[in-house]
Amino acid sequence: MSITKKAGVLAVGLGLVGGLAACGSSSGGDDQASGGSKTVTLVSHDSWAASKDVIADFEKRSGYKVRVLEDGDAGQAVNKAILTKDNPQGDVFFGVDNTLLSRALDNGLFQSYEPKGSGMILPEYRVDQDKHRVTPIDTGDICVNYDKAYFGKHKLTPPDSLDDLVKPAYKNLLVTEDAGSSSPGLGFLLGTAAKYGDDGWQDYWKKLKSNGVKVVDSWEQAYNEEFSGSSGGRKAKGDRPLVVSYASSPPAEVIYADPKPDTAPTGVATGTCFRQVEYAGLLSNARNTEGGKALLDFLVGKEFQDDMPLNMFVYPVREAAQVPPEFVKYGPQAKNPLTLDPKKIADNRDQWVKSWTSLLLK
User: Fold this and answer.
1) Distance from the Cα of residue 80 to its chain's centroid
2) Which of 98, 141, 183, 265 has its CA 20 to 30 A from that of 339?
3) Which of 42, 45, 53, 51 is nearest to 9 (CA)?
4) pLDDT digits (tens, 9 = 90+) for 301-319
5) Mean pLDDT within 254-265
6) Distance between CA 88 and CA 287 in Å, rounded?
7) Statement: residue 95 has pLDDT above 80
8) pTM (predicted TM-score)
């Protein structure tokens, strides 16, 4: 699952609706296809979100009407885009992240374009600078979250590192997602590979398994059903006080609560975080290339970057973009997140997932 998936699901779990569910202002019923001069089609995973007035402003200034085609989880959407690259469903693809980027690039999913304003993107997020096939749009951290009430009640210090999670004190407390079907699950696996290396990550997961880690299919199930600290998990009587989620999950628990608590009911184990970055690109064989270029310019522009955090619960990648104070207070970015070179991910991802599946699910 993509980093942006959780925001909409969390809002539903809290019984809320609103701007979080907003997306492009047009639907598939437009009288012009994406090849028309007035419509530009954005293909994304199923959690794209932007404020209606921000999209409307782009449409007014650019003359293009935005059509959004949501196409499943991040992995599913990327795979479908690759299969249809000769006759793409749209003009721009948004939502391929650093865990799957090599698959998209190796299969020729994107054509070259350097958006106007991309020079304002923070250098640490830039990739593919020789060809400009993709542009970073947002970032966030996949981290273990903990239920503050549980640890307070049991007078137990919450874990803060991957090493902590295999200690007997945390036996049968952690729930994570399937690395083969879930974006945060895969990110957590990659974080352990980054920490323990090719020779050590499997031994680490054997220890996690012995310590009672529970694996479920999706983030929605882990966070909103199994995790005792979330609003949804409390309603579902979840009994796992540790969950693989995001650093921005605690702010969401505050922002969408009614009444709002004075502090977040959940916290982040900062030593478990893996940095995730999402990209967008102009699809190869796009019908409306000029519209696609204008849309990419917009995605890296200040208006969209400022609007994005409270819609998709991710951090902007543009220099000096606004970050909500709730993010700073309740879900700051990890200072030293685990990372992996995209080539390392490309060379090992499929085998790592295969080995992980054999270890955990068989």
Assistant:
1) 18
2) 265
3) 45
4) 999 999 999 999 999 999 9
5) 92
6) 8
7) yes
8) 0.84
